Every structure is written in structure tokens, then in C-alpha cells.
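Weekly structure sync, notes
Attendees: PL (lead), two postdocs, one rotation student
Agenda item 3: pending single-chain targets
PL asked that the sequence for the first pending target be pasted directly into the notes so everyone works from the same version. It is reproduced below exactly as submitted, 183 residues in total.
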Amino acid sequence: MFPHMFIMALALLHVDTAHSSAGFTIKHFLVGSTHGTMKVASVDMALQANSAVPASIDAVVDVGSVNTSDAGRDDDLRSEEWFDVAHYPTLHFTSTRVESGSKPNAFRVDGNLSLHGISKPVPLDCTVSDTMDHGVHHYHYVATTTFDRRDFKVDAPNKTLHGPLFIGTSVTVRIDLDMVEAG
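Predicted structure, written out during the meeting:
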């Protein structure tokens, strides 16, 4: 098969930003957890031929939209001590490899996460479900990963006097994407 024929077989998807989000959980005082969300700004995704599994993903999340249900904490997270959204308003994920999982609706995406001016490889464990609604194909993707926030220099040494006892270093992320096949 010629490369241009393969590209023609890919289906392109559009993100439904109103029904998509990036959520995170981090330990607080080692006994509780803080949960938050950020808005998905854009996603470019192409599907493998005859599959709901992506061939490529390029996603942008609006870090300035961080919401932990505490306005003071959210303002603090936006500050230069944490996310520094004035200089780094988004996080960006670009896939480098997609690998099928053990189940038909499961797969793994390896890619580069750029956050706070630093880019590092991060794997995503993913699942997909799909349905037809009024002749339009809809897909729901769930991707999860865990990484150390310090790898991306998201650390406020003046505010973490007790180090990881005060605010955990391991961040668990769950991304929910509702995607619609382009017409």
C-alpha cells in the first residue's frame, strides 16, 4: 500500500470541548487528596483505518482554567510559584507511538508532555467506547497516567515547607475526551 493511500484511510475526529476535561488528583498531607480539572482546549486526532484506536494525537489543555473548587488555591496554582500561567498557559501532549492493548477497546499511547516549559515522555493508558447517534459516529476516550510534578518543575519550595508530607509529588491524571467523526 502506498503511504498516501494509508493517509486517505484515516478518519479525522473533532473534540467536543463542552464534554471533555482533564482531571488530576494529588495527595494533601498524605491522608487526603485534592482534585481538580482543566479545560481541554484542542485535540487533533486521526484514527487508524477501520478502528477507533488513534493513529496520532495532539492535545492542548488550558492550564489557566485550573479548578479545584477553591478560588484562593486556584489563584495560587496559576501563580509563578506553581504553574506560572502567565508564561506557560497550556500543556501540550503529542503522541509518538500508539500500541494496541490486550482488549479491543484498550491501547497505550506514548508521547511527549510539555508542561511548565519542560518536555518529557509520558505514557497514557487508554480505553475507547463508541456509538452512533443520528448517523454521526461518537467516541469517548479515557486516558490515565501518573507522573512526578517535580519532573516538570511544578514545585513551590516556599510553600512546601514539609516537602512531600504537605503536598504530594505524584500526580494522577485522567483525561476524558468526547470526539465526533469529522463530516
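Discussion points:
- The beta strands are 11-15, 21-28, 32-47, 54-67, 90-100, 106-115, 118-133, 136-148, 167-181.
- The first strand starts at residue 11 and ends at 15.
Action: rotation student to compare against the earlier draft before next sync.
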